[in-house]
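Q: Here's a chain of 165 amino acids. Please give me its 3D structure as C-alpha cells.
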Amino acid sequence: MASQTEAQTSAPTHSATLELPFRAPYDWPRVLRFFSGRATPGVEAVEDGAWLRAIDFNGASGTLAVRRHARKHCLVVQIDGPVSAHAAALAAPLSRMFDLQADPAAVAAHLRSDPWLAPLVAAVPGLRVPGAWSGFELVVRAIVGQQVSVKAATTIIGRLVERVG
C-alpha cells in the first residue's frame, strides 16, 4: 500500500491535518494503552481515544493529537503551532512510531504457523509494534528502564523533562 499523506496547512492558524493510512486490522485501543502506560508527564498523554504530545521539530514547536479515523483505515493527526509548517516531514516518523507500514495479514500468517502464537494472533488481530518519537528518546527510556519498572522510569523521565525541558 503506497503511503498516501494528505496535508492541509492553514498559515494564519498554524495548524495542519494529516491522514496516515494503515492496513486493517489495527488494534488502536491496545496501542493507546501501551503509550498511556509510558506517557512522559509534561510531554505526552492519552485522553479520549487520542495520543497527545508536545514536540519540537526542526526548531519549531507545537502539539500533536493522533486519533483513529471513525470510518477510514487511517490515523488522523492534528498538528498545531509553528511545527505545522513541517507537516509533510512529520508523516514518516509518525508512521514508524505507530507501525503503519505493517502488513497484519502477512504477520498473522507467519505467526499462525507457531502453535503457541496461533491462539494469541486469533484472539488479538491487528497488534502493532509501537515505536518512540525519536532515537534519543528511545535510548533514554531504555537506559532508565533497565533498573526500574515502567512506572518508575516514566516518573524519572518526567522529572528530567521538568528540570531540563
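Q: Can you summarize the key feature?
A: Confidence is low (pLDDT under 50) at residues 1-11.
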